[in-house]
């Protein structure tokens, strides 16, 4: 049985690391070990922060902020245990995306790859092979780039093969450039291959010819006996959907910092959407988050009715409200918050009435997020829609026969509340794609609860509410008897919002 241990102190592992005194070394010489001197791990450069080089970001034993090497090993063990006997899981990394020419976007690792390895570099491939019936019976192979001083001088450091084993606990590391030679022996005896990089003739033409994904098609087709393939995501989703205490802790930290940034922003007058957007992005990074979790919505006045308005370029006007949907990221775990507040500091009567109605419904829906209730997100959505309609009727909205049907056949509530009440969150803003919202919520599910009302400028709705938009969203962790709101530091009571000015 395979025994997984926490990563030991790299300062001890790397102390005998050999470096060269000859300068400049050849590429081949740089990638080989010649004994000349020793060096501490704290003096080395890796492709991402490690505790020895970034103790201000990571604690001992952590691979990524908040998540230990042991937890990553446990995730791989659980996935392997869920595979059929003799099956293999193959996960290619994400690749660098280019904005134009040689200008690239910030790299973001593929989420399932990240969840199982913690390794955040492109040009990588992870292979997890089930080797027996027990929980720890598996092997983990990590193919990545070997160290290359000349290339790293241009692109910045990456971790290399030795770190793949010593830091990221791979049983074996291999050169990604030798994938055609090293990968087939791991696949020849597989009973089934699970991968989301389903090989096809089109996949290789649409991606870089040097990427792991583009290599898989020819490797799979060259196997003498082709094992059946199956998508990997459904298996990983079952594990990713239920968050561990460490994951919840990372999301709670992201929610705490993001919520305080929201509350701080509400204290100040803002002249424009880009000014407010820039303040929030700065506040997330200033207080220890890695940045924005997604492109935010900063929508003044009637622009708040556009659900995913992200231009964030207009002026803000006194007398209107501003709707902000934003959140920060910590260790690749996100938070998702929406708040609405008056640009001038005080709600008008109509703004206050509509906001209070949505807030009452939001509190009710958050309270349903318990395992004891046994409701799914779909069921919470239906309860939310019914409660919103009751609240709007009390405000003078009509939902009789004449109002219910609109041109095109849409119902009035479908126009006023056109989106779902929530979605799963975690490593992604819309986490575990394909995981159904009809699943009864269990302790460890993390979701958003975000009822909203968006009133068109239409004479079939009360005049004083036309053009208003209210959405109130919190990130919530489901527990057995009571929900854990991950974002309470973002104030949302009318009195609290107005008191900030």
From TrEMBL:
<feature type="domain" description="Aminopeptidase P N-terminal">
    <location>
        <begin position="67"/>
        <end position="204"/>
    </location>
</feature>
<comment type="similarity">
    <text>Belongs to the peptidase M24B family.</text>
</comment>
<keyword id="KW-0479">Metal-binding</keyword>
<dbReference type="GO" id="GO:0005739">
    <property type="term" value="C:mitochondrion"/>
</dbReference>
<dbReference type="InterPro" id="IPR052433">
    <property type="entry name" value="X-Pro_dipept-like"/>
</dbReference>
<dbReference type="InterPro" id="IPR007865">
    <property type="entry name" value="Aminopep_P_N"/>
</dbReference>
<protein>
    <recommendedName>
        <fullName>Xaa-Pro aminopeptidase</fullName>
        <ecNumber>3.4.11.9</ecNumber>
    </recommendedName>
</protein>
<keyword id="KW-0031">Aminopeptidase</keyword>
<dbReference type="GO" id="GO:0030145">
    <property type="term" value="F:manganese ion binding"/>
</dbReference>
<dbReference type="InterPro" id="IPR036005">
    <property type="entry name" value="Creatinase/aminopeptidase-like"/>
</dbReference>
<dbReference type="Pfam" id="PF00557">
    <property type="entry name" value="Peptidase_M24"/>
</dbReference>
<dbReference type="InterPro" id="IPR000994">
    <property type="entry name" value="Pept_M24"/>
</dbReference>
<dbReference type="InterPro" id="IPR029149">
    <property type="entry name" value="Creatin/AminoP/Spt16_N"/>
</dbReference>
<dbReference type="GO" id="GO:0006508">
    <property type="term" value="P:proteolysis"/>
</dbReference>
<keyword id="KW-0482">Metalloprotease</keyword>
<dbReference type="Pfam" id="PF05195">
    <property type="entry name" value="AMP_N"/>
</dbReference>
<keyword id="KW-0645">Protease</keyword>
<keyword id="KW-0378">Hydrolase</keyword>
<comment type="function">
    <text>Catalyzes the removal of a penultimate prolyl residue from the N-termini of peptides.</text>
</comment>
<keyword id="KW-0464">Manganese</keyword>
<dbReference type="GO" id="GO:0070006">
    <property type="term" value="F:metalloaminopeptidase activity"/>
</dbReference>
């Amino acid at each position: 049985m395979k025994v997984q241990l926490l990563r030991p102190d790299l300062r001890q592992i790397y102390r005998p690391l050999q470096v060269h005194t000859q300068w400049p070394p050849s590429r081949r010489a740089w990638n080989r070990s010649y004994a000349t001197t020793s060096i501490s791990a704290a003096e080395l450069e890796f492709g991402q922060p490690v505790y020895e080089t970034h103790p201000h970001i990571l604690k001992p034993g952590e691979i990524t902020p908040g998540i230990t090497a042991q937890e990553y090993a446990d995730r791989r063990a659980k996935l392997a245990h869920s595979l059929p006997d003799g099956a293999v899981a193959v996960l290619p990394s994400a690749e660098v995306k280019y904005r134009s020419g040689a200008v690239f976007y910030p790299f973001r690792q593929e989420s399932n790859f990240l969840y199982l390895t913690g390794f955040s570099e492109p040009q990588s491939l992870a292979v997890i092979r089930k080797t027996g019936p027990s929980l720890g019976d598996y092997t983990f192979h990590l193919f990545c780039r070997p160290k290359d001083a000349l290339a790293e001088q241009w692109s910045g450091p990456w971790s290399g093969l030795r770190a793949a084993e010593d830091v990221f606990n791979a049983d074996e590391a291999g050169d990604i450039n030798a994938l055609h030679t090293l990968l087939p022996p791991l696949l020849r005896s597989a009973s089934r291959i699970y991968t989301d990089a389903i090989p096809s003739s089109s996949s290789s033409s649409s991606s870089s010819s040097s990427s792991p994904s583009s290599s898989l098609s020819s490797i799979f087709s060259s196997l003498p006996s082709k094992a059946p393939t199956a998508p990997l995501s459904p298996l990983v989703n079952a594990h990713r959907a239920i968050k561990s205490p460490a994951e919840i802790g990372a999301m709670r930290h992201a929610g705490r910092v993001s919520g305080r940034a929201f509350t701080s922003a509400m204290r100040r007058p803002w002249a424009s959407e880009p000014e407010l957007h820039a303040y929030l992005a700065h506040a997330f990074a200033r207080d220890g988050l890695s940045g924005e979790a997604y492109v935010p919505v900063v929508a003044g006045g009637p622009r708040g009715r556009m659900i995913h308005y992200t231009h964030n370029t207009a002026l803000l006007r006194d007398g209107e409200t501003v709707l902000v949907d934003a959140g920060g990221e910590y260790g690749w775990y996100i938070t998702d918050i929406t708040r609405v507040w008056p640009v001038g500091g005080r709600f008008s009567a109509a703004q206050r009435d509509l906001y209070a109605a949505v807030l009452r419904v939001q509190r009710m829906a958050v309270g349903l997020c318990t395992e004891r209730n046994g409701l799914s997100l779909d069921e919470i959505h239906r309860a939310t829609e019914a409660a919103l309609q009751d609240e709007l009727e009390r405000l003078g909205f009509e939902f009789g026969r004449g109002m219910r049907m609109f041109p095109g056949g849409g119902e009035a509530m479908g126009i006023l509340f056109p989106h779902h009440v929530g979605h799963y969150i975690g490593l992604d803003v819309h986490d575990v794609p394909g995981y159904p919202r009809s699943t009864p919520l269990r302790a460890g599910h993390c979701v958003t609860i975000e009822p909203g009302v968006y009133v068109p400028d239409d004479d079939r709705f009360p005049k004083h509410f036309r053009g208003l938009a209210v959405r109130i969203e919190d990130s919530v962790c489901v527990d057995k008897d009571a929900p854990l709101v991950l974002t309470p530091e973002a104030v949302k009571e009318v009195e609290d919002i107005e008191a900030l000015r």
